């Protein structure tokens, strides 16, 4: 009995601590599909920190490249795009000009077929944000999806909102692609030689 009481007390303390940190799911939130990106985002963040990198980039396939900007505990910003002058980026990769690559992929007219992720807290995509935090955002081309948990109640009709099923499908697609790119970056960071010209400013 004493052991049960002790365990119960610990649970209450843990809940209180989590609530104090603002990490309680939104009230009445439905069960969201579990994402694979949170574990990968944390792994990449730890790798970047261990190598004292705020920005990193690597080749994806053909003329496609992916770059990431990491602010520990604040955000992880990722962009994947095809670049119109891939040889320029090969040069930038050789000289570790990761920041320039990130900026070009985000804003250059030569960048196309973009996939952009704004990962708040650098903890992976969450289908429904925890209380007191901004939502994660994924943008594919011109379609911007804000994962704020604001979708139609399946128990009601004629709501001018995205259906819950469609919302979660959009999340799963974004999470799957984000996870694959995080995997690619993790492998590239582990493989990269950090000797030579430094580009992280």
Short structural summary:
Helices cover 40% and strands 21% of the residues. It is α+β, with helices and mostly antiparallel strands and 201 residues long.
Structural class given helices, strands, pairing? alpha+beta
Number of helices in the DSSP assignment: 5
Residue share in helix: 25-40%
Q: Largest sheet, if any?
A: 6 strands, antiparallel
Strand percentage: 15-25%
Instruction: Point out poorly predicted stretches.
Output: 1-27, 194-201
**Net shape:** globular
How do the strands line up in the largest sheet?
A: 1-2-3-4-5-6
Note the gap between the termini. 59 Å
Give the tally of β-strands: 6
Integer-rounded radius of gyration: 20 Å
Count of discrete domains: 1
Instruction: Tell me the series of helices and strands, N- to C-terminal.
Output: HHEEEHHEEEH
Mean pLDDT over the residues: 84
Topology:
Blueprint: H1 2-20, H2 37-50, E1 55-59, E2 64-71, E3 75-83, H3 86-94, H4 98-107, E4 111-120, E5 136-140, E6 143-147, H5 164-191
Antiparallel strand pairs: 1-2, 2-3, 3-4, 4-5, 5-6
Helix pairs in contact: 2-5
Give short descriptive properties of this protein.
single chain, 201 residues, disordered N terminus, disordered C terminus
